[in-house]
Every structure is written in C-alpha cells, then in structure tokens.
Design brief:
By secondary structure, the protein is an all-alpha fold. 71% of the residues lie in helices and 2% in strands. 44% of the residues are buried.
Amino acid sequence: MTEQTKYSLQNFIVVLLNIRYAGSVFFEIATMPLTLVIIGISLCIINYRRIELWWSVAILIFTCLIFLSESRVIDAWGIILAMYCLKDYPLEKFAKMNLLLGCLTVFSAFILLKLGLIEERVLGKSFDVTYEARDLGFGNPNSLGKFIFFLIANIYILNWRQTAKMFFVCLVISYITFRYSGSRTYFLAGIAMALLMISRKIYWRKYWGKIWIIFLVGILIAFFRMVKIEDPILNILLSNRLAYSNWVLSSFSLKNYLTGYILMDNEIIDNAYISMLCIGGVLYMALFIYMFITAFIRNYNFERVYVPVTIAIILSGFMESGFVAFGSANVLLIWLILIKGLDGESINNNSCLQCGRLSRRLS
C-alpha cells in the first residue's frame, strides 16, 4: 500500500467515525455495519511485516475474545485496531478534522431541532439547582457535555502554545455547556483541564510524570476500594454510582474478569474503568494502564504538552465511561496521545507543519 493510499484511508476512518456517531445519536441508526467497515479498513492499513510483537499478541488476543466472549469486546478490538492504524497520523491533523466535523455535528443538531426531525430532552436537576438540563438531541445531557468537552480538548491540541487564551476558552465554553446541559462531570473535567494548562506553564519538572502515575494509579486503587466498601455518603454524592458498580463487580466470575461481562441493553456503567472490565476484561484495563505508565516514563517531554487533556480525560473516567467504547473519533484522542508517547513521538513530528509536508509529498 502506498503512503498516499494509507493517508487517504486514515482520513476516511476519522470521517466514518464521526458519521457513525452522529447517525447513532440523532437517528438511532445501527452502528455495527459502519463498525465492521472501519475495522476492515484498519486491518487493511496495518503493515503486518513491521508490527511490533507485543501489539501482534494484543490484537490476536482480542480477536480471539470476540469468538470466546459474549461481551462487547468488539468495542475494545475496534479501539485498539483504529488506534494502531492511526498511530503515525499527525495528532494536530486528527484534532483539526475532529473539531471541524464536531462543530458541523453541533450545527446539524440545531438545524435538526428547528426542523423537528429530532427531539430535545429536558431534565430537572437536584441538589437545589433550579436550571434545566438539555441534551440538544444527543439523548442525554452528559453525552452533550462529553461531546463539547472533547471539542475543547481538540482546540487545545491545536493551540497548546497559547496557554492564557486556552485557559479562558476552556472555562467559558465549559461554563456555557454546564448551564445548558447540567453535565457536572464534564464541567469539572473542563475546570481540571484549564487548571492543568496553567500549572503546566507556570511550574513543570520532568519528574512530574512519575508523580502523575503514582497519583492516578493511587486514585484508581482507592476507587475500587470505595466500591467494595460502598460508603453511603460518597454513594449519594456520586449519584449511586458506588452501589451500582459494586453490584456489577459482585456479579463477576473469574471468566468475566478474563473475557468481560454481559450487560443488558439498558444498563450503563458510569465509570470508564469498570466499563473496561465489562468490555474486555482485565486485559483491556491492563493495556490502558501499561500505555499510560510507559508513555509517561519513556517520553514525558511529549506527554507533558498534552497533560491537561490526558489527565482531565482520565479523571472524568471515574464518573463517566467516555473513552472506552467504540464511539466517535473523539474516543481515540487519549489513546493516540498515549501510543504516540509510547512510540517516542516528538512535538515537531506531530505538528500541522508536518501535515502540510506530508500532503505536499503525497501530491
């Protein structure tokens, strides 16, 4: 396969992922046909002669799990394949396409609402808050909050050098989205992203990568401990997430930890890490943790630029499962940041200037 063909197919995957998401959200179109098309294209793009051994083993294991498990392991398989075939795709190009298609999706939602082709759900909120939560036709206020949060993340990828500007952009858009949708999780994630932008600019040291690893892994261990204890006060503050997570984990057998857990169609796990166990078992979670730890140790000069996005997404995962299932292209953002760090990517190789050079070379 020529470089030009590969680059065109990579662009096509990003477009298909956005079309797939919009179709499923607004018109409830079945996602499996497009999922299989995207996976098929990904399998065609991969250069099997140059693939690393451990990635070959990971892909092979999840391929086998599709036939051995009745869980949604195809979500994990799709993310791994799409991530791997896009690992040499410039991140800023990825962010630019996602931002353009994402804005088009939001604009389309407004048009479809005006035309009466989709409906907007309005939900009341608790905790003495009197505003209404709207979803703009996305089916759930948190889905809208997540979508806008990832748009902000894409804007940051393109403008990470302009810290002050991005700090205010992040806060303003997060607040407006919160007032409209009432999505507390992604409002807090947006605030975390903004604060991390400032901290990255003011004071940064190389050893902070190891501090982040200790901090986030510690929170993950503490969370599973809280799920086991199921503290009633924390359970109320977390909207009954601890009790539900405890119920799901208590239903796991040894096989479920290896192959995943079958959820009913109407069941949703509002936690990325328990969702990982349900989708692809401990192997899926272990892969993500390995990528995070190794990328932050091996190539922190690259990862530190995108720390505001990476850490904010990881923290949001304790309240929502926004990056573990095969959804929109935005789901791949954190995975691409980690795999590029894992492969020794540099900032210069990831710039839009590099995209231009590639385009000129292919033309």
